Each structure stands twice: as structure tokens, then as C-alpha cells.
Amino acid sequence: MKLGYSTLALLGLDFKSITGYMERLDETSYWEYHCEDEGCLRGWGIGELRKLAKKLGLVINIHAPYVGIRIEPGLNGERILDILLEILNHAVKLESEYIVTHPCKVPELPPGKEKVPEWAWEVNLQILCEFADRCLEHGVAPVIENVYSRGYVVRRVREMASFLKSCSQFRLMLDISHAYLLGELEEFLQSFFGRLYGLHLCNTMGLRDDHLHIDRGVIDWRKVLASLVSRRFDGYVVLEVRDVVEMRESMATLKSFLRDLGRL
Fold first, then answer.
1. Residue 132, exposed/middle/buried by CB under 10 A (0-12, 13-18, 19+)?
2. Is 226 helix (H, G, I), strand (E, B) or coil?
3. What is the pLDDT of residues 138-155, one digit of tens each?
4. Residue 144: which of 174, 188, 114, 189 has the closest Cα?
5. Could you give the 3-state DSSP secondary structure of residue 200?
6. How crowded is residue 172: how many other Cβ atoms within 10 Å of its Cβ?
7. Distance CA 144, CA 99 (A)
8. Dihedrals phi, psi of 245, to nearest 5 degrees
9. pLDDT of 44-61, one tens digit each?
10. Average pLDDT for consecutive 10-residue bins of the chain (264 residues)?
11. What span, in angstroms and rounded, lies between the C-alpha atoms of 195 and 245?
């Protein structure tokens, strides 16, 4: 397995501080750089990350921004695709192995309604299938993350199954907390093992996406990982913990568990 950190724990810091942490937190060679918005890494930032990756032998993958991916009726999604392609350009320069993105969002749904309009489904497919094709042209794996908040075009297992059938280029980054909060963690694990690229791992108290230390919540992540290990899963496990100290402690806990299973 490739055990990595997400820069989610570093959001709000200036770029120099983020790269400083990336240099000091040497428990892993794998990072997922979390872009907050479409301006992520413009200018000199991408060059500095390239230097850091080369200096330390890091693999820096990219989490595309969820800001700006809201679609509206009558729009063909060109602006959203442009944002994603700019992020792809960064990933190519970084020699990233993957980009993870979210499904598109729609305007606020009426209370009690979950099903998104058909036009939104079609625009979401148009944008993301084109993006996936462009990723593969550049040797970068296109990866979709499951979400739990209302308003996203793809949330539940049945929707993800339909999406992955239509956009077969994508593989899945399974966010354990998101799936748990939807009450569909087991269903996601059973339905998409063959399409699983990696995991976003953290914990939650069960009401919202808390991004807690992996041992400070209600999710039995050991059961999840033990099941995946028994099926010879060998993808990414990225810690999406919001606090730096808890993220490092989580890495130590994770490594100890995998060592006991004979996987480290």
C-alpha cells in the first residue's frame, strides 16, 4: 500500500508553511495536495512543488477544488472543464500519479428531494468523461471521490455505479467517512472493490465529516482495512485528518496495524 498525507491539515497556511511541513513530515513519500480553489498553484507555486518533489523523492498527487464545480441550467460546463484542465496541467508538471475530483453540484434541491434533474446528470457526465479522457492522454489516473452532502450529482452507491459505467475511465477514491455518513460504507466496499484506486481515511463522531484521528470516532477502520488486505488491496491510503498532530499520530497507528497484518 501507498500510505500518504493530505494537505487538508495545512489549509489556511501560506504556501511556504505548507511546503515546510511537507518537508518535515517525513513519514511518507506520498502527498495529496488539496487545492482550495481554481487559482491553486498558479505562478511560481508549481515550480516550488516540483523542486520539493525532486529534492525529497516525493510523489505529489492533486485533489481538485470543489469550489467552482456548481452547474446551472442551460450551461454546458465549459468553465468547470477549464478549471479541471488547469489542475491537470499542474499534475502533469508534477508527474502526479492521479487527480481526485468530486462530482459536480447543482443548485439547492427542494427539502426532501434527493434526485437531481436529468440535465444535471448529463452535464456532469459531459464534463467529467471529457476530463478523464484528457487525464489518460497525459498518463494521469482520473479518480472520483464519493461525497455525502446533498446537491452533488453523484452520492449514493446506485448513482456511483451508474456513473462508473458511463465514465469507465474513472476509478474510485473511497472516502470512508463520507460513505459511513450516508449509511452505505459496506455497500461501497462490496460494490466497487474492482474499481478501487485508494482510500481517504479519517474518523467521525457520526454526524458530520469531522476529519478526526483515525482512532477517535465511530468508524471501525481496522475492520475495513483488514477486509481489503484479505482481498489483496494495494492502493493508496491517504490520511485526511484535519489536525497535523493527529495526522502524524494516525500514521503511526496505521503503520502499526498494517505491520501486525504483515503488510509493512
1. buried
2. helix
3. 999 999 999 999 889 999
4. 174
5. strand
6. 24
7. 8
8. -60, -45
9. 789 999 999 999 999 999
10. 97 93 96 86 87 97 84 78 93 97 84 80 95 98 96 95 98 98 97 98 97 98 96 97 97 97 85
11. 32
Q: Which amino acid is at 2?
A: K
Q: Say what the pTM is.
A: 0.95
Give counts: helices (H), strands (E), the chain.
9, 8
Taken in order 113, 205, 143, 65, the sign of the CA dihedral is positive
Domains of the chain: 2-260 (3.20.20.150)
DSSP structure string for 132-187: HHHHHHTT-EEEEE---STTBS--SHHHHHHHHHHSTT-EEEEEHHHHHHTT-HHH
Q: Kindly tell me the sign of the dihedral angle through the C-alpha atoms of 174, 226, 235, 42.
A: positive
Q: Quick one: cell of 17? A: 508553511
Amino acid of residue 229 = V
